[in-house]
Amino acid sequence: MKPRFIHSYSDDVVTFDFDKNDILSLISGKPSAYAVLKGGDNYPEIEGVVAFYQGFNEVIVAVEVKNLPDTQGQCAVNKYAIHIHNGGSCRDNSDIPFESAGGHYNPNDCRHPAHAGDLPTLISNNGNAFMAFLTNRFNVKDIIGKTVIIHKNFDDMMTDPDGNSGERIACGVIVK
Ligand SMILES: [Cu+2]
Ligand SMILES: [Zn+2]
């Protein structure tokens, strides 16, 4: 897959110049790896899956989550930080949910939000979220055995090392 980041606009139609057939065939197949997300003790109803599809140079990541703890109202934020964490387990230690997932996956020793594991913010709709995006920050083979964590708050995309994302509310180990 060799996507190009150019889009064109004409006659009220916006077309993206990705190779749609490559993308569709990639995400129609079996993911190269995935993580099944489960809520922690405080959010046992959360469930989700993160699928990773290895392309030529990039990875397509597709995320689907249900039963996020959204608040109601027209000005509710309902955005959640989601990261790949470096640890290989979702175990709890002491009082910190999923503490054994460790910090953000950061093989290049960068500062947040330049960690390879820093993903786009998840936007929820009455507790349901879906997003898909392209990234070249990692290859799938590099993240197998690591973890995906969703946090209670959104990522401020500034504060090192964790974006001030708050409590860990769901976790899953990335497997082939
Ligand atoms: Cu995180
Ligand atoms: Zn980070």
Report on this structure:
The protein has two helices and eleven strands; from the N terminus they run E-E-H-E-E-E-E-E-E-E-H-E-E. With 176 residues, the chain is mainly beta. The protein has one domain (30-175): Sandwich (Immunoglobulin-like), CATH 2.60.40.200. Strand 4 (47-54) and strand 5 form a beta hairpin. The longest helix is centred in the N-terminal third of the chain and has 9 residues, at 20-28. It is globular and about 55 Å long. 33% of the residues are buried. The structure holds copper (II) ion and zinc ion (ZN). The site of zinc ion has 6 residues, from loops.
Number of strands: 11
Count of helix runs: 2
Assigned CATH architecture: Sandwich
Name of the CATH class: Mainly Beta
Integer count of domains:
1
Nearest-integer average pLDDT:
92
In which range does the helix fraction lie?
under 10%
Q: Structural class, judged by helices and strands?
A: mainly beta
List the ligand species. copper (II) ion, zinc ion
Counting copies of identical and different chains, the oligomeric state is single chain
The unreliable regions are none
Which sheet architecture does the biggest sheet show?
A: 9 strands, antiparallel
CATH superfamily: Superoxide dismutase, copper/zinc binding domain
Strand content: 35-45%
Strand numbers in spatial order across the main sheet: 6-8-9-5-4-3-11-10-7
Can you tell me the overall shape? globular
**What pattern of helices and strands is seen along the backbone?**
EEHEEEEEEEHEE
Cα distance spanning the termini:
20 Å
